[in-house]
């Protein structure tokens, strides 16, 4: 089922009206083609005005949709012969992170991604996409395997954050995330990271140290949720909409700040409208990125990644930082 967001309501109502008129013309002799044509033109303009001016809070809502495509939704459209690998060889298998080996256009690659559920039962099974330490250690095991066998790594980021529960802290949540950051920085193979939904805090960053970082148009990437930021800054989580505007967590803002490399356009209305069509957009960016990165030596790949993160936040004046010329 495709869910409707508040800002889309005028579009949905107009589409419904057009459908009703078309059905009416089929059952009567009344010619309403002129009225239908005018409404379709109006719909086209309305869609353009709304979808080209989506507010940050609207993008947050799209990124959180239960039916937004996940890592496992994209894999069949992008890769061949996917073989999922389980367990961290230390404690357990964390289903909030999936990973394995596959082929992309005949090239062996390693895939790692956050995985949340589509309904309550699956969300409980996957801990709502919030990994425990064993999830990050499973990811690191796959990264080291890819490094050994010279396979490029593709990471899909989609989590509210690492699980903050007592048992996760007891098993070394902070150490597991920090270890991933450290190890990913020195990987000698291409690493491409794509934020496909929510990119929340260190839980997202633990899969986010790449040579190239991309975001789907309606995804978010932030140190904390808008609700959490509002609760800290203004002692009122209901001001989340205002926080989303202030935090600069959307793809257009992060591209402007140099945090990400490129924005991957989404299907009109969001990736959930057409998973295959969205996968085609991701495929193009993967092809071009791999073509560039596979030309680099191992030393150049490490240096490229180091330079990428060292230059984040670089500016010469306050005016340049806030975008004033």
Structural commentary:
This is Acetyl-coenzyme A carboxylase carboxyl transferase subunit alpha. It catalyses: N(6)-carboxybiotinyl-L-lysyl-[protein] + acetyl-CoA = N(6)-biotinyl-L-lysyl-[protein] + malonyl-CoA. Its main location: cytoplasm. Residues 38-292 form the CoA carboxyltransferase C-terminal domain. It is an enzyme of class 2 (transferase). The chain has 325 residues and is of the alpha/beta class. It has 2 domains: 6-53; 61-311, Alpha-Beta Complex (2-enoyl-CoA Hydratase, Chain A, domain 1). Helices cover 49% and strands 15% of the residues. The protein contains 15 helices and 8 strands. The protein has helices spanning 9-27, 33-51, 56-63, 71-78, 120-125, 133-148, 166-170, 173-185, 201-205, 226-234, 240-247, 251-256, 275-293, 298-310, 318-321, and strands at residues 80-84, 97-104, 107-114, 153-159, 191-200, 212-216, 220-222, 262-264. Strands 1, 2, 3, 4, 5, 6, 7 and 8 form an 8-stranded mixed sheet that branches. Strand 5, helix 9 (201-205) and strand 6 form a beta-alpha-beta unit. Helix 1 packs antiparallel against helix 2 (33-51), helix 4 packs across helix 13 (275-293) and helix 6 packs parallel to helix 8 (173-185). The protein is globular, with a radius of gyration of 22 Å. The model has no long low-confidence stretch (mean pLDDT 90).
């Amino acid at each position: 089922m495709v869910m409707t967001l508040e800002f889309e309501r005028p579009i949905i109502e107009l589409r419904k009206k057009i459908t009703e008129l078309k059905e009416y013309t089929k059952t009567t002799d009344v010619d309403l083609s002129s009225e239908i044509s005018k409404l379709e033109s109006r719909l086209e303009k309305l869609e353009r005005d709304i979808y080209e001016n989506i507010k940050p809070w609207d993008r947050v809502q799209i990124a959180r949709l239960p039916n937004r495509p996940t890592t496992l939704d994209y894999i069949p459209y992008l890769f061949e012969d996917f073989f999922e690998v389980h367990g961290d060889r230390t404690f357990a298998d964390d289903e909030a992170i999936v990973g394995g080996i596959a082929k992309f256009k005949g090239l062996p690659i390693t895939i790692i991604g956050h995985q949340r559920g589509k309904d309550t039962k699956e969300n409980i099974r996957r801990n709502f996409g919030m990994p425990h330490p064993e999830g990050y250690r499973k990811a690191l095991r796959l990264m080291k395997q890819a490094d050994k066998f010279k396979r490029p790594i593709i990471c899909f980021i989609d989590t509210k954050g690492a699980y903050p529960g007592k048992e996760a802290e007891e098993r070394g949540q902070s150490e597991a995330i920090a270890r991933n950051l450290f190890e990913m920085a020195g990987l000698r193979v291409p690493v491409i990271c794509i934020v496909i939904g929510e990119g929340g805090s260190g839980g997202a960053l633990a899969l986010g140290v790449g040579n190239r970082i991309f975001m789907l148009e309606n995804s978010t990437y932030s140190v904390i949720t808008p609700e959490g930021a509002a609760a800290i800054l203004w002692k009122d989580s209901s001001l989340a909409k205002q926080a989303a505007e202030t935090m600069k967590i959307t793809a257009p803002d992060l591209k402007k700040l140099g945090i990400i490399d490129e924005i991957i356009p989404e299907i009109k209305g969001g990736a959930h409208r057409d998973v295959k069509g969205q996968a085609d957009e991701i495929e193009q960016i993967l092809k071009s990125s791999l073509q560039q990165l596979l030309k680099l030596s191992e030393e150049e790949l490490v240096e490229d990644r180091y330079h990428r993160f060292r230059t984040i936040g670089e500016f010469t004046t306050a005016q340049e930082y806030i975008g004033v010329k």
